[in-house]
Amino acid sequence: MKRSVHSKIMQRLRTEKGWSQEELAIASDLSTRTIQRLEAEGGGSIQSIKSVASALEVDMHNLEAKPRTQLVGVRWGYGGVAAGVVLALIAILANWMTGNGSAYEAGVSLGLVGLLAGVSCAIIGWASARH
After folding, report:
1. What is the pTM of this model?
2. In degrees to the nearest 10, what's the CA dihedral of 43, 58, 8, 68?
3. Which CATH number fits domain 2-62: 3.40.50.720, 1.20.1250.20, 1.10.8.60, 1.10.260.40?
């Protein structure tokens, strides 16, 4: 089964070690052509990715490219939290400024909005890390 690799990260890690593609191939017990393919095409077998990650001394998941759909979902999630917070702040401040609520009530409401936004962002971050 072919997996996606973040080829720029792989190249950066290789060059940080001062290795050529040939040296990485030797260290990972793969062919030079496999290393070239991973860096050029961004895809390879899970065994190849594990071997390269081991040679570069990183976790295999650090080399894998995240699907674009997952990143888009995370962005929409944080965007939704931001929009909700902004609208809640407007409503709370408008209510307080028109005299329909006290400063204490506005402070409590703002604190609750901050709490809910923090929890929402934590859930989005946790869920995106699980992929």
Report:
1. 0.51
2. 60
3. 1.10.260.40
